[in-house]
Design brief:
mainly beta, 4 helices, 6-stranded mixed sheet, Immunoglobulin-like, Jelly Rolls, 7 domains, 3% helix
Amino acid sequence: MKRDSTLRWVVALSALLSSHALTAQTPLTDVTTASTPVSLSSGSGASNILDNASDSYGSISASATFRVDLGTAKVITGYSLTNQDNNTNLPTNWRIEASNSATTGYVTLDTRAGNSWEKTEASRKFFAINNNTAYRYYRIVNLSIVSMRVTEMELFDNFYISGKVFKDYNLNNVKSGDEPAVPGVKVWIKKLSTAAPVAMTTSGEDGTYLFDASVLNGLEIFAVAAAPSGSLQPRTEPMPQSGLNFPSLTADGSFLFSNINANQYSQSGEINFGFLDPKVTTDGPVLENPNLVTNAFNGTFGSSDSTGNNFVLNHPNAKYFSLTASHPELYSNVTGYTTGSNYGYQGGSNYGTNGFLWDEGKYLVTDFLGTVFLESGSTDMELKGILNNASFGWRISTGATSGAWNDRFLAINGSSLQDSSLNARIFADTVTLDAGNTYSMGFYGKSANKWQQGAAVAKPTVVKYFVKRISTGDTAALGSISVVPTTSNATDSVNIGWNKAFTDFIANNSGSYGVYFIVTSSDVAGNDAYFDNFFLRKSSFKIAGRIYNDANGLENGLVDGSTISTFSGSAIYAYLIDPEDNHILGSTTVALDGSFSLFAPSYAEYKVAISSNSMINGSVYSAGSLPSNWAFTGSNSGTNNLSGSNIIAVNPMITVSPVNTTTDVTQITFGYDRLPESYNRNKNVSGAPVYNSFVSLSDVPLQGSDMEDNAGVQVNWNTKKLKIVTLPTAAFILKYNGSALVAGSIITSYDPSLLSIAPSLSTPGGTLNTSFTYVTYDAANLPDATAATYTVTYTQPLPIELAYFRATVEDCNAILSWASNTEIQFREFGVERSNDGKTFTEIGTVSPTGSNSKYMFKDVSAEGKLYYRLKLVDNDRSFTYSTIANAFVNCMKETLIFPTVAKNVIYIQNATINSKVSIYNINGSMVKELTINSNMEQVDLTGLAAANYLVTVNDNGKITSAKIVKE
């Protein structure tokens, strides 16, 4: 039925606002919650009726009542019921009553008899109530002779649908102060089961429209749609990134009230529509996104009759139709598009049994009404069957901005013919450009058919583009954009995986330009793709910066130095990157003066990165590795950048958030530095290595070079920073300024005279050389990536290598024994003894007998605890020392118990064999007992707790005792 387009909504809105001035709420907001008290006189599942879930229900018996307690009195002007999937228990006859007493005084507000449902699968239906009185209790009385099942009941105190139509510059579906209202836009409410709309109105001067309760009364599955007026088009960004989420306020020209999922209960009746002009204008921010595929309204999803007040074709969100019926709107042809000789246009009604992406070199532009929802069911609901009847690949036709009035998508089965001429074009259009402007162009793309055809054909689809001035044939832009395939079957859905693919160029002359897109491939399979929202528009803002050879890095707190355009001859590229998925939106080669400029297609946040890898627009950015010996030093996020203007950060990817729609982001800088080089060094030493005799390395200093610091000349690294990476081999000791170094030691101001080396006691005999590694640092405080080796070589080896050296006690004598593995130019063994392990005195010498020999020395004057070592003397009198061995000699034959403080072991010496040993705790209880079996008996204390103990030895009646502490 036709409604008055101006007066009715003004009167209705005024009445509603006046009656609810103090309690204005968002329309169609349910006043009940899952915790609202309910009662059911007869039936089951009462709490399910208010739980906002479409998979549970309550059953109200015949003549029974279901009561809701709102807690306070409220005026309810409408309600909804959602049925349950049961044809015999659908709500058909009922009465709505209300009262301010829980048990008495109920008045009838609404009665329904013979109600029918369009759908019996948890479908939601709205009903109006003529009520101006506030009540606390509302109840539904089942007037049927059988029970009725209700999945959900909602009560509304504001029962209408309203919203605003405006220019959505910020693309967030919320009207801000600087976004102008759009008056005179026609807005329909349309049931999806019929072609004619239920009602139509137009937006007022402030862009507001309204449908009152009488329009909503009895509606079950319907859409609210707004037709763009004049040259306006639905804004097409941001596109959905994952799945369909209906109902939703998508601001693309349509909104669905249906039973798609449980989210329907959280949606309100405030529906806003955002539109944009299809070309650059001077009266607003440069955000417009003309869709070249659907310009001139050639792709309108719903069309109206001659009066402009009634639909002729189904709305795009329509999901009820029979595949067996005639539906020319499902396969409507598109006119005004040119195809090349290598590409044939696939007629909409001639899709064949194998689908559109079957025949080589075929493509289509289509709208396919009704395929927005991916459902399965009976014959008239098998929406997947329209395009998905092929043996290979998914064919479901949902564009990147599904549901928009002008949304079409382009499906391509790219030809295997290689043709770089315009004969192979898949799409062409004409645009008017102004000289000096930078333009952004591109599309949304998605690779097709990986899921069923497999990874072998999941290859990038490369689109070549031309922009030519028509009058002269001059090429303004030429390049390629890649559509990257999905990485897994899980993401190979029609609703996810769409990626922006952009580029930019400068128009040198004003006039008409032809825009051409071409797809060619050497692969017969694997270059199938879907495209949507081809656009060309003036760029929003510029992102500019420079690349520096930053010799001192961030040591001076700046990214500076000399500008560069190459890394050792390799070109440098700047990339504009989508922060959501890291796809490349734009790129440029860094100029000779180190500068670069990128152009943002719209007012949004982006990332900027630098790489020596050449990558195609549309592909996923990969930083890769820098050319050999180059390193990143730091970046400056630039001016006019909200994400961190003038903040220095060691970050190879900068986030750019512009301060407004037209101000350029400038002075973004990236610093790079060539790493220093460290050089291998060799020093020769006369003679053999001598323990604790340190050799200075000052005559052969550590050396390095740096391209920035000294033009790459190899020099001594005096006064500069370096690091000892690995310590000397063969257990040599490396000292700097008298202190032993460890691996990773940093020397901040290297002085060659302070570095020295000597063997340790652990250095093997026969050792002729040792080596360690180091790296030099440059002025940017960055180290050489590869360590250099410093090698010290002796003319004579360390004289001997011992196999072992031991000390034992026999008959009041210390017996020293050892064996050699290697003896080279060896003079003698000097036997040295010490009482404290620090000061040693020679007590004898032993002559060598050759490699692999065994030796013994008896110290007959030993008494008490003693320490022994060998002095290993070479023929040239150089020497080193063995490890230290110790012995305890007790010739007085007194029974000894030691040590008095022990962890796990004590010793008993000189007790007679079979003497008894007893250990007592502080309470006098014996905790351990044993028998002496040797002259030096070892007693294990492992099982005893940490405490004080008394140890006694009974040697044929002679008692020796000692107090010990077990730790």
